[in-house]
Design brief:
Order of helices and strands: EHEHEEHEEHEHEHEHEEHEHH
Bound molecules: NADP nicotinamide-adenine-dinucleotide phosphate
Strand order of the largest sheet: 2-1-3-5-6-4
Structural class: alpha/beta
Distance between the termini: 30 Å
Oligomer: single chain
Helix content: 40-55%
Shape: globular
Length: 287
């Protein structure tokens, strides 16, 4: 039951109908008896500013921002966190006392997912990232802030080089940009391998960023794609005796980080358990 005190949250993007965020956040509000509701809003480019100012005027408490607005939304926000500024993308907005503050929880969500699965921090770990899109950028910046070492391979190598240049400039650190001919050796030398491309995402579920035989035995392998729950990449990695981490873990952790920002909720096992259950039920229904 909503009333005049109900806290309003939502996600804006285009398209938005497949978003799992409403089901994930509303499950928390219901279980924890929080008087709040979370909606999905389809917002196109030309209405992005109106949507942000409107949400502020209507006293929304928070918004998530997804494709294609994570960068363009920044010009409508009053303050931006240090991490979101570095990543140059916002996926979470908090409205408070007339001020809209932008955050990025994608990168930290991925880091938390790995650290919780491994029960150790990423400091000094060698992480290999496939991809140089928005999600890869967030993960790379957050992993560097956690003092991990990064190698990156992207189909379009120029994009990987651009990220490296930006990191040199902003953090005075470097990445290893990997060429196809060195891929196998570099994977072997890594502790953690992450697919941060969209390869393998529904409906292209038989695709994988690499051949099964190129996955070294016994590594930690993460796929940030969450639909399907187990991607071809994770299926191959399991056969290669790797420890696997699915995209649902990152989705849940980035959502839990947003709840921490908005409502000061602790991202403990109980909270992430509620979120994971809701997401998995929804994904299974869709399959
Ligand atoms: P994006 O900015 O569009 O980047 C897409 C990346 O995938 C680029 O590196 C692109 O390479 C690569 N790619 C696409 N098709 C490819 C192909 N056929 N072969 C090789 N590389 C290919 O997308 P994004 O926002 O980073 O999202 C990437 C994926 O992560 C999506 O599936 C998204 O759903 C998922 N995601 C998950 C979470 C989570 O919480 N689990 C959060 C954010 C995103 P090029 O540069 O060569 O085009």
């Amino acid at each position: 039951m909503t009333d005049s005190k109900t806290k309003i949250f939502g996600v804006i993007g285009h398209p938005i109908e497949h978003s799992l965020s409403p089901v994930m956040h509303n499950a928390v509000f219901k279980e924890k008896k929080i008087n709040a509701d979370y909606f999905a809003f389809d917002v196109d480019d030309k209405n992005l500013g109106n949507a942000i100012y409107g949400a502020d005027a209507l006293k929304f408490c928070g918004l998530n921002v997804t494709i294609p607005h994570k960068i363009s939304v920044m010009k409508y926000i009053d303050e931006i966190s240090e991490e979101a500024n570095l990543i140059n993308a916002v996926n979470t907005i908090k409205f408070e006392k007339g001020i809209a503050t932008g955050y990025n929880t994608d990168g930290i969500g991925a880091i938390k997912a790995i650290e919780k699965n491994l029960n150790e921090c990423l400091k000094g770990k060698k992480i290999f990232v496939f991809g140089a899109g928005g999600a890869a950028r967030a993960i790379i910046f957050s992993a560097l802030l956690s003092d991990a070492e990064i190698s990156i391979y992207n189909r379009t190598s120029e994009k990987a080089v651009l990220i490296n240049n930006e990191i040199n400039e902003k953090l005075n650190k470097g990445l290893k940009v990997v060429h196809l001919k060195n891929l196998r050796a570099e994977l072997k030398d890594s502790d953690i391998i992450i697919n941060a491309t969209s390869v393998g995402m529904f409906p292209n579920v038989d695709k994988c960023a690499i051949n099964e035989g190129d996955i070294p035995e016994g590594k930690v392998v993460m796929d940030i794609v969450y639909n399907p729950i187990e991607t071809k990449f994770l299926e191959f990695a399991k056969k290669r005796n790797c420890k696997v981490i699915g995209g649902v873990d990152m989705l849940v952790e980035q959502g839990a980080e947003a709840l921490k920002i908005w409502l000061n909720l602790e991202a403990d096992e109980n909270l992430t358990g509620i979120m994971r259950k809701a997401v998995i039920e929804k994904l299974i229904k869709k399959m």
